[in-house]
Give the backbone structure.
Amino acid sequence: DLSKTRNVDECKTVKIDTFCLDDYVESSTDNSVYERLFKSLSESIESGRHAITSVSNQRSSTVLRIALMGLGTPEWEGDNWPPLTQGVGSLVRMLHALRALMRQTLATCFITIPSHIYNDEDYMISVRQLCDY
């Protein structure tokens, strides 16, 4: 409800996890940035007890809210831009895994992908098919 105001002290007690893209892009491991993002999200869900498979008396009573902005931009892809140089692309694989993960959690995920930077309509169709509206 956007008509209600929140107390500032209440907002300070909220747990906020961040994923610093710069730390992962500069890393020299073989895993893609999206694989590491997915692993980070999975760990956050598990540590916050938001998984539906958790024991019910240990499960969190709050919903985890995830926001991923500008996913699929050259900053995320790094040297793999454009993303189709390696088949389907790591973004589509990560979105597929994230969709399955979200169905097993007490969480929501809001993602923005700037579709205007992609010339391949088929690629964007595959990305759109992985979204729940």
